[in-house]
Amino acid sequence: MQRLFGIETEYGITLEGKENIDPVQQSMELIKSYRREDFRPMWDYSGEDPFQDERGFRAKTLQEHPDEEKYREQDRQRNIPFVEVKSDLILVNGARLYNDHAHPEYSTPECRSLFQLVAHDKAGERILHQCTVRRSQKLGQQVLLYKNNTDFHGHSYGCHDNYLMRRDIPFDYLKESIMPFFVTRQIFAGAGKVGIETESGISSAGFFQLAQRSDFFSVEVSVDTMHNRPIVNTRDEPHADATKYRRLHGIAGDANMSEYATALKIGTTALVIDLIEEKRIPDHFAIRDPVGTIKEISRNQTYEWLFKLKDGRSISAIELQREYLALAQKHLIGRDSETDWVLLEWESVLDELENDPMNLTDRLDWVAKKWMLETFIDEEGISWDDPWLQSLDLEYHNIDQEAGLYYGLEAQGLMRRVVTDEQIEYAIYHPPSDTRAYFRGKSLDKFRADVKSVQWDNITFNVNGKPVSVSMNSLVEPELVAKYNRTLDEAQTVEALVSNLGLNM
Question: What is the set of active-site residues?
Answer without folding.
Answer: 100
